[in-house]
Fold these 2 entries.
Entry 1:
Amino acid sequence: MNAPTGQASPFLSMGPSSVMIQQQQPMNYMMGDAPAQVQQQVELSPMEQQLNQERLHLLVSDLLISEKREAALAELSKDREKFAQLAPTLWNATGVMTALLQEIVSVYDLLQPPTLSASASNRVCNALALFQSVSSHNDTRSLFLNAYNCLLAHIPLFLYPFLNTIAKTRAFEYLRLTSLGVIGALVKSDDVEVIRFLLSTEIIPLCLRIMETGTELSKTVATFIVQKILIFQIGLTYICATPERFYAVSTVLGNMVNDKPSARLLKHIVRCYLRLSDHPRAKDALRQCLPDSLRDKTFDKHFQSDQAMKRWLLQLLMNVGDYASYHEFMKN
Ligand code: TRP
């Protein structure tokens, strides 16, 4: 199904350090990471590799000991890029995925009323970072999505209570962003099974809410997820299946445009609109409801510095048949 080949993920260029700077705390989600399969391992001697393996196994077994779990979570999450075998090791070690799920479930009580502390948030985000590693590794992704074991089936659903929170404190924002990161890593695989699974859940309304009320960074990741879903034919068909669904999405996109988005966010918004314009009925609707600020010079500065985004916008204007605005843009 329409697997989008050759589409560089916009997040590949956004190194984890850029996220860290914005958050000013040791962040664990890895939207900026290269997919696991292209992640370069640092060259290690056989001796170092052996030691590294032993340390990995020791830390993973510490996850099963309650007094050692918090420190092991922090260490593994911090050094996750050093361990090529992290994801399969976590997945295959008996009881470890269950222990990680336990970490997640144990903070549900703190979500409503919102009483999650910064340190509890940090701890669960470290667990989420390990989930993300499992969800982005080629050997474990589909197992993660569709575990044979009933208890572990559909693990991403365990993150939805986090995405559903609205508290504005840093602890909650960090939790939402890290959970979005796990979903973002899943959709980055361009695997239609991921999309099929997500569409069977309520991911779109959750993303839309975050696109409406989140911080700039959360909005960006949520919009990225919607964009990735839309790229697949089943995603486009799902979102355009009813007028209510289409207008829910286009209204939120329009509101974000009116909120003066960053260039990075705007890029994802334009991609979403452009993809919607591939659908015949959505194209007709967009002719009416595409925001004026995308038809005039409002974002000229962003378009000048990002020619790819400008081309997408021009294509969008063509698709919806707004030739007047198209020619205005072509003048300069
Ligand atoms: N269950 C809702 C539906 O089927 C999910 C939903 C809410 C939704 N808002 C949406 C789906 C916007 C797509 C777009 O409509």
Note: The two ends are 38 Å apart (CA to CA).
Entry 2:
Amino acid sequence: MLENNWWHEAIIYQIYPRSFFDTTNNGIGDLKGIIQKLDYIESLGVNTLWINPITASAQVDNGYDSSNYTKIDPLFGTEEVVDLFFSETKKRGLKVIYDFPLNHTSDQHMWFKEALKGPDNPYRDYYVWADGPDEGLYPNNWTAAFGGSAWTKEMNGDQYYLHIFKKEMPELNWDHEPLRKDMAKVLNYLIDKGIDGIRLDAFIFIDVDKRFPDKDPDMETQDLIEYGENLKKYVKELKASVRARSKDIFVIGEATSADAQRIDEYTQEELLDGVITLSHFTDNDDLKIDELPEMNQHVPLDFDKFKRTQKAIQEHLADRPGPILFWNNHDRPRSPQKYGDMDNYRDETAKMMATLLYLQKGIPIIYYGEEVGMNNSGFEDPSNISDNGALSFYESASELGWSHDKIMKNLNLTVRDASRGIMQWSNTKWSGFTEDAAPWIISHQEATYNVEDQEKDENSILNYYRKLIELKKQPLFTRGGWKLLDTEKKIYAYKRNYEGTQANVFCNFSDEERVIENIVNASDDQLVLSTHDAELKDQKMVLPAYSAFVFVSE
Ligand code: GLC
């Protein structure tokens, strides 16, 4: 692995463009809005932006259903604005990562419209087709991630096309070479346009089992569609083509289910430079009940398992820039509210969780708004939630006798819409996100948990994040070794070391005070960042509820 790639020092800020800043007053954020906020983004100290898809889309899945990979969606701006965006970000030394939904297109993409014209059309094989069944409704029993069968019958023919996500998002057929060549061309276009990195969305599904076997009842469809036998070949080919165009493009892949072993396997120079997994969100699934769908039951984090998972990921990638470190993204509710205590210890929870994760080895991704301690949207009615399954969960849980409040709490902590609320810029109408058009998504305005108010407070979450990001830039935290310390359950503590410098990071992930002994040497260790004043007595250190302390010694 190359040692001096720019992403070794990357600190990424993820923006969900719809919810960031609206300059056209239509209730939907836009690219000009991002440009207008670049000073703010720069002031955080981050050096890289990842923006969720802004290219043309039917917007059935907010941009992940692409209808043209090389044109901006008019919802977000014009080609001139795209050019301005790249020139402004480059001027500031900010790198830009684009999202690339390469597993499927929209059914409105020209390729799919052509493919629907019939089996002889040159674009037919850009997609995955199966003949109708002799018996039964569908070619097999695979289910789609967003509900229902993974197959839909074409309108004017007898075949079925595969869609792992929504029916408006047909799967692309990566076995077909012309498709792979076209996808490489798309990336070349984007590289020439100015991107510095690319996120391969849902890439693990691009090579499904084309024999289309039925799954056993106790099997997940996932088992037959993930990590197909040619997956590595196609990723390698794409990476080689990217590298041939530019040596400097950071290629990350989203592999939601990847464990440490898989991340290791795919984080290789000829494959990916980083893997985004959800496997470190180790929810305590044992606490879920069988009578209700698993997906919308909120359960706490299994903290022991979290530690073990982090340790495995950190150790597997010890010689590479990347584990990708994140608590939040657009596909899951914001973690501080899910796992910490944002009712009683909001500032502490937000600061502690960021410290715990981001000072480890790896590349942080900060999701817009977490730097001011933004909470989840807090829907009051399931009909306002676009996630599939929310309504039926509501019905089933009601039948079981769950109260409205209990059901909504579970939904708000499990549906992905919850994390997509509008950015909290100020304590004014619509939080300063838009002027007077209602935002596209129900969002709560939150006094003081906004940028304007926190700018004025030296001890705010926002200003803590700035200090944390500054610290993260030191080689000790980007390149240093990492070791988890053996501490009691709810304490997460680790050492970093780099060329004779050492850091100790202590975090208390509980609402009770804890004391640790014989770890810190008060006279030599300098406290460089903390959520509270340090109380050190005779080698004993007091960790208040949800506290974090970072010591460095030369
Ligand atoms: C990824 C995206 C998610 C999207 C899905 C289908 O998981 O992060 O938002 O819905 O892929 O493209």
Note: The longest strand covers residues 491-498.
